[in-house]
TrEMBL record:
Residues 109-301 form the RNA polymerase sigma factor 54 core-binding domain. Keywords: DNA-binding, DNA-directed RNA polymerase, Nucleotidyltransferase, Sigma factor, Transcription, Transcription regulation, Transferase. The lineage of its organism: Bacteria, Pseudomonadati, Bacteroidota, Bacteroidia, Marinilabiliales. The gene is rpoN. This is RNA polymerase sigma-54 factor. Residues 64-74 have a biased composition (Basic and acidic residues). It comes from Ancylomarina longa. Residues 325-482 form the RNA polymerase sigma factor 54 DNA-binding domain.
Length: 484
């Protein structure tokens, strides 16, 4: 049985202004510049400049300074009786879903596959073989490999295009592609890729001959760096073996990567959000706002709305709609300016708290001086929520006198030494890195040995924890760090 009843509940909802502030906090400096440019384009009430004009409403002072003679004047009539502008564009959501948003295509240059097709054009092949070879090229990935099984390609051609071919014919045509540049293109696995490249080197060079023998007959041992086993089986001296390995290491495991894909965006340039300077033993923090303009509300639009508020009793429906549009834009501009200011205050408050917490580190830049610090520590100091601290530290950078660092860099967990002193896990990782950098590459340090070294330095860490830190530092296992 359905029953109707009234319930009273207390809910916490974010206002549009609060949502705007939250989104602003997440933006790094470069994206903030773009966001401000977009707002300036969309809202005619918002202007750049050092002046700070607050628009007046009915509850504020009615005295407004006189207009400058050289200032362009506006009136409500500018937003009325325009037959070319539909009524929906006078509302806040002023874009129709029927509006076209066309993007202008641009030329991206020559792609990797186009380079291969151009080389195919220089070969004399029957039309069907030319089409089959072009189809094979289309199946080569960006690294330069044909990773699809040829039998599957035979089936695809039969079902999708009706072209009958065979495994042997496609392998023959694949050999044609493997003769293209860059060397190694069209390989089906890493071993074939390296062998295709070594074939093009000096065939009479003894080092190349030995390298080819290693790749052909001892590839699995080579990938596992079992050099002692290979050297013993081939019965070669240390110098010749090292020269052969050096020849292999010169080869490119991803031949397609030699071609830059112009369709991919370049890595973004890091622009610091904070600037930290040291002068006479003191630290000075500032926001990097060189490309972020000062904003203010247009006086002309403020006065336009003020004039309307004094005579709104005798206004027509069109004038009221136009006035409502202007007021919406004025409110939006004021909210945007307030959001920018609140963002700046929150960023400075958070960064100052981080500097105070890690002051010893920021003076010297010594990684070992970094104290254990988590988001909760800064949240307690600033009185802000942990989620706010997370948004501030995400995608933000600070420029110091010893380099540019991500804010996330300063956060790390902690552990205690034998003496009870709390140290950052970053300090332990730095010691691990130093141990690996200084090890004998013929006999790299295992995780057990690294744990023993840390234990000697009063850091009680289990082997599995050493392995975790090593992986976080992108250091391979001892066997793969072995060198001749």
């Amino acid at each position: 049985m359905l029953k109707q009843s009234l319930q009273q509940r207390l809910l916490q909802k974010l206002s549009p202004q609060q949502i705007q502030v939250i989104k602003m906090l997440e933006l790094p400096t470069l994206q903030l510049e773009e966001r401000i440019k977009k707002e300036l384009e969309e809202n005619p009430v918002l202007e750049e400049g050092g002046g700070e004009e607050e628009y007046q409403d009915d509850n504020q002072n009615e005295e407004i300074a006189e207009k400058d003679n050289d200032k362009e004047e506006f009136s409500l009539e500018d937003y009325m009786n325009d037959e070319d502008i539909p009524s929906y564009k006078l509302s806040a959501q002023n874009y129709s879903k029927d509006d076209k948003h066309e993007e202008i295509p641009f030329s991206g240059g020559t792609t990797f596959h186009e380079v291969l097709i151009s080389q195919l054009g220089l070969r004399i092949l029957p039309p069907q073989k030319m089409a089959l070879t072009e189809y094979l090229i289309g199946n080569i990935d960006e690294d330069g490999y044909l990773r699809r099984d040829i039998d599957n390609i035979v089936d695809d051609l039969a079902f999708s295009t009706g072209i009958e071919t065979s495994f042997e014919e496609l392998v023959e045509l694949l050999r044609v592609i493997q003769d293209f540049d860059p060397a190694g293109v069209g390989a089906r696995d890493l071993q074939e890729c390296l062998l295709l490249q070594i074939e093009r080197r000096g065939k009479h060079n003894p080092d190349v001959k030995l390298a080819k023998q290693i790749l052909k007959k001892h590839f699995e041992e080579f990938t596992r760096k079992h050099y002692d086993k290979i050297q013993k089986r081939l019965n070669v001296n240390d110098e010749d073996f090292k020269c052969a390995i050096d020849e292999i290491l010169k080869l490119n495991p991803k031949p397609g990567g030699a071609f830059n894909n112009p369709m991919e965006k370049a890595s973004p340039t890091i622009i610091p959000d904070f600037m930290l300077e040291e002068q006479d033993g003191d630290l000075f923090l500032s926001l990097n706002s060189r490309n972020v303009p000062e904003l203010h509300v247009s006086r002309s639009y403020s006065e336009m709305l003020h004039d309307y508020s004094k005579n709104k009793k005798n206004q027509s429906r069109e004038q009221k709609d136009a006035a409502m549009f202007v007021k919406q834009k004025l409110d939006s501009a004021k909210w945007f300016i307030d959001a920018i200011k609140q963002r700046q205050n929150t960023l400075l408050l958070t960064m100052n708290a981080i500097i105070d917490f890690q002051r010893e580190y920021f003076y010297e830049g010594d990684e070992k001086k970094l104290k254990p610090m988590i988001l909760k520590d800064i949240a307690e100091i600033t009185g802000l929520d942990i989620s706010t601290i997370s948004r501030v530290s995400n995608s933000k950078y600070i420029q110091t006198h010893f380099g540019i660092f991500s804010l996330k860099y300063f956060f790390s967990e902690g552990m205690q030494t034998d003496s009870g002193e709390e140290v950052s896990t970053r300090e332990i990782k730095k010691i691990l890195q130093e141990c690996v950098d200084g090890e004998d590459k013929r006999k790299p340090l295992t995780d057990d040995k690294l744990a023993a070294i840390l234990k000697e330095k009063s850091y009680q860490i289990a082997r599995r924890t050493v392995a975790k830190y090593r992986e976080q530092l992108n250091i391979p296992v001892a066997r793969l760090r072995k060198e001749l």
